[in-house]
Amino acid sequence: MVKITDVARRAGVSPSTVSYALSGKRPISEETRQRVEAAVRELGYRPHAGARALAGRRSNVLALVVPLRTGIHVPTVMGFAVSVVTTARRHDHDVLLLTQEEGEDGLHRVADTALVDALIVMDVQLDDPRLPLLRALELPSVLIGFPADPSGLTCVDLDFRAAGEACVEHLARLGHRSVALVGSPPEVYVRQTAFAHSVVQGFTTAADRNGMSSTVHPCEPGTAHETAERLLREQPALTGVVVHNEPLLEPLLDAFEHLGLRVPTDLSLTAICPDEVAESARVPITSVAVPSAEVGARAVELLVRKLDGAVVAESTLLAPWITERGSTGRRTVV
């Protein structure tokens, strides 16, 4: 079946331009209109009846693109999704949740249906292959996450680099000189997921600035004991750990205890995670909160303003805030 993207490719225009040429929703030059109409005739394109019915009015539906790739902690992702849905409802919008791998073809498919007014895109990579299309689409979008080059895009997220720095600075103030980062699963870094790389940059920058020895360990789920042993083997003087891998928090507490280290007497532990996770640990964790509710709400509000024709800030970085709990203490000098 011929799609609107096929017509756009033949006419040398964007899919949205084809839509405007066929619906009359926006002014199109006569030359462009003729090219589009010629491509329609040559390919035998027939617009979808639902798309025709929706032409010229909003659907009041936002698409939330959340590819559930390996290494992603689903409960945290769903925290963002719930915030997006509840905030969208306050603005009289529904949310279409897309959990499959939605690359360029997937985004084209969603845009072509005319079933959504705008896009919120998660799990952003540093060099995300979806970015050129998002910049070209006339469908408004907001990214939860920051690629390496955010120009021409609207992005919102926690400042994960500053979050990594905040955890290390807290440990430095307590006198710790040897620290380790227990990071996300390896595949998250292989995909160059933006937030994970930002944490590493912040962690290493702060450790270097304070003259601390440091290592970074991407970790698979279910490897807490092996990870704890490796940390102590590689850094015998280790006294501070930053965890950016929620499923490993409680297992790491158990593993270090099994190896004879008490938290926080022998080892201080901080994390970047939702407050409810840090507070519910058997040793409450000093942490930088992942503000999923605020980030999701900000993303929707930015998108609604864009739909209303307002100019919005391209970058919205939420400053991290570290909450001290029972898992950190002053370094004991022997």
Task: Note the topology.
Blueprint: H1 4-11, H2 15-23, H3 30-43, H4 49-54, E1 61-65, H5 74-90, E2 94-98, H6 104-113, E3 118-121, H7 131-136, E4 141-144, E5 155-158, H8 160-173, E6 178-183, H9 186-190, H10 194-209, E7 213-218, H11 224-234, E8 240-243, H12 249-258, E9 268-273, H13 275-280, E10 286-289, H14 292-307, E11 315-318, E12 322-323
Parallel strand pairs: 1-2, 1-3, 3-4, 4-5, 5-11, 6-7, 6-8, 8-9, 9-10
Antiparallel strand pairs: 10-12
Helix pairs in contact: 1-2, 1-3, 5-14, 8-10, 11-12
What is the overall pLDDT average? Answer: 89
The largest sheet has its strands arranged as: 2-1-3-4-5-11
User: Structural class, from secondary structure content?
Assistant: alpha/beta
Count of alpha/pi helices: 14
Give a brief rundown of this model:
The protein is α/β, with parallel strands linked by helices and 334 residues long. Helix content is 44%, strand content 16%.
Structure description:
With 334 residues, the chain is an alpha/beta fold. The protein has 14 helices and twelve strands. It has helices at 4-11, 15-23, 30-43, 49-54, 74-90, 104-113, 131-136, 160-173, 186-190, 194-209, 224-234, 249-258, 275-280, 292-307; strands at 61-65, 94-98, 118-121, 141-144, 155-158, 178-183, 213-218, 240-243, 268-273, 286-289, 315-318, 322-323. The protein has a six-stranded parallel sheet with strand order 2-1-3-4-5-11, covered by helices on one side. Strand 9 (268-273), helix 13 (275-280) and strand 10 (286-289) form a beta-alpha-beta unit. Helix 11 (224-234) crosses helix 12 (249-258). The longest helix is centred in the N-terminal third of the chain and has 17 residues, at 74-90. It is elongated and about 80 Å long. The relative contact order is 0.13.
